[in-house]
Amino acid sequence: MRRVLLWLAGNAWLREHLPRFGFAKRAARRFMPGERLDDALAAGLAFQGDGIGIILTRLGEDVTSAAEADVVAAHYEEVIERLATDGIDGYVSFKLTQLGLEQDPERAYERCDRLAQRAAAHGSLVVIDMESSRLVEPTLALYERLLAAHPGSGICLQAYLRRTAADLQRLVPRHPFVRLVKGAYREPEDVAYQSPREVDASYVSLATTMLQAQASGDRVGIGLGTHDIALIDLIEAHARAVGLDRTAFEVEMLYGIRLDQQRRLAREGYRVRDLISYGEAWYPWYMRRLAERPANVVFALRQVVPW
Amino acid sequence: MRRVLLWLAGNAWLREHLPRFGFAKRAARRFMPGERLDDALAAGLAFQGDGIGIILTRLGEDVTSAAEADVVAAHYEEVIERLATDGIDGYVSFKLTQLGLEQDPERAYERCDRLAQRAAAHGSLVVIDMESSRLVEPTLALYERLLAAHPGSGICLQAYLRRTAADLQRLVPRHPFVRLVKGAYREPEDVAYQSPREVDASYVSLATTMLQAQASGDRVGIGLGTHDIALIDLIEAHARAVGLDRTAFEVEMLYGIRLDQQRRLAREGYRVRDLISYGEAWYPWYMRRLAERPANVVFALRQVVPW
User: Fold this and answer.
1) Which residue of A176, A196, A240, B171 shows the fewest CB atoms closer than 10 Å?
2) pLDDT tens readout for residues A40-92
3) Using alpha carbons only, how large is chain B's radius of gyration in Å?
4) Measured between alpha carbons, how far is A249 from A237 in angstroms, rounded to an integer?
5) A193-212 burial string, b = 16+ CB within 10 Å, else e?
């Protein structure tokens, strides 16, 4: 099923046509408060009451020109300002391809640098999202430069990639902020662990590495981008073992998934953020979410089919 | 099935009577070359040719008096001498209850200390095996003392125990040698992780911690007591990520299990040891081996029933 869903995620016809249908929009509401920034900000404000921060990301079409990348950058600049104005505990996260990485890495860096500057002016940060494996190297290269200029900037690393253990070692001495996720793209066997148990083990191993670094005094920010409570429990136990506590990391879950757990964790003293996506190009993103968790497919179908 | 096997392992009547039957002895040959030390040493010599070292452990009855514990200690002293005389790359591993831990911890320590001394005289070491969770604390306490007197001495830690992450942190600054196993006793939920994926994740997390310590210059010896090739691969990848290689740890597998893999790993430059058990009291140990891996039960039945 995962393969089918990932194939559907890449289907151009569906990507163009499906989101126009009302039933599809309803299904997508499972994972996003709405297509507009205002929808996302309103949801973010509501989370404040539960002591849950947010992360905002706009789901965009592929960027093919400098002009389009400038529009995306301008949009994130607006988001950064709106978060500050509305007094919401949140930051932005974006894909570098949206900022033109594949057209012109230097211009992409400049856009990124400007956003990090704006965020820093409000005491906030930016986090670079990670994409398919072929983009890891240029993304890391840009991030290292950004991190040197703007301490506290973040990046997403994917536990299913075999290279990530080495990538993390390369980043740790530079004091990164890392959102650690399992990984949701379809990658070949030689590039990524395929079995859930290997991915889980890699995930915990990477988190352990960061906690060790933190415990020995390195500034390493940790975001656990997972809905897997068993893993979070294990990592929390490890944090205690090295003399830290549950505030050593933040837990980042997607809007609409395990909200009960997000609230429980926040109540129990964990730092929790809800990652809110919005925008019109939600189709491939949505299909990857379904592929991650078969249970979500059932939920999605229930929104559409009157069982 | 695991529960049934663990219950059978604890059954006193079976423990006494089953090993007398010929068919049971044949089934046990799956996991031990024979009941006598000579059988184990002969098997050990044969492994030399494959570049595989050994670990010897005698399967004993519960010890109830100082005299019995003295007999066990004298036996291991003999084993240490025999390994040296026969020129076999090997060391001994034993349970502290066999050396009288529960009757008199001080005397148990003295026996242990003498064995470690004898081993050191031959450039070898001793490794303390781990038993059920209630014995972890006294075992660790004795080990810490032993390690201070005899650097290089080893202990077994069990990844399924929730406390092990903290135990490892306590040991690392003392430069331990740790045989890391998943754990094979039946332990309650609040004491031990129950699901294989949690145990695996804990296992890799603990191995990662030791590799990090080794990479930052601490003397920490690592024995991976597992037959799980996927985990070994993951840990090897992590070793490379921190600038070490596959000789950073040794792989320890049981006699009779995955011998093809033991040979392959040895050929590929891993340090491999085969853990050979012998002795008459093999019944509960044997049942725990079956409980670990349902495939072994099928194999064992095939030795007995002519399918």
Assistant:
1) A196
2) 999 999 999 999 999 999 998 789 999 999 999 999 999 999 999 999 999 99
3) 18
4) 12
5) beeebbbbbbbbbbbbbbbb
Q: Where are the alpha helices (DSSP H) in chain A?
A: 2-10, 12-17, 22-28, 37-48, 66-85, 105-121, 136-149, 164-171, 196-215, 229-241, 259-267, 283-292, 294-304
Domain segments of chain A as ranges? 32-281
| ipTM reported for the complex surpasses 0.85 | no
What is the C-alpha separation between A273 and A263, in angstroms, rounded?
10
Q: State how far the Cα of B53 lies from the Cα of B223, in Å rounded to an integer.
A: 12
Is A200 among the catalytic positions?
Answer: no
Assess whether B179 carries a catalytic annotation.
yes
Residue A234 and residue B205: Cβ atoms within 8 Å? yes
Strand partners, A288: none
CA–CA min distance A57, chain B (Å): 30
Q: List the single residue in A with minimal CA-CA distance to B215.
A: A169
Say which CATH topology domain A32-281 has: TIM Barrel (3.20.20)
**CATH classification of B38-275 is 3.30.450.20, yes or no?**
no
Q: Are A114 and A99 in contact (CB under 8 A)?
A: no
Contact: A202, B165; criterion CB under 8 Å: no
Distance of CA A303 to the CA centre of its chain: 25
pLDDT tens string A193-227: 999 889 999 999 999 999 999 998 999 999 999 99
Where does residue A98 rank: exposed (0-12), middle (13-18), buried (19+ CB within 10 A)?
Answer: buried
Q: How many C-alpha atoms does B183 have within 13 Å on its Cβ side?
A: 27
Global pTM value: 0.83
CB contact under 8 A, A193 and B234: yes
Rounded CA gap, A157 and A140, in Å? 9
- The partner residue sitting opposite B234, judged by closest CB among A198, A237, A241, is A198
CA of A127 to nearest chain B CA: how many angstroms apart? 24
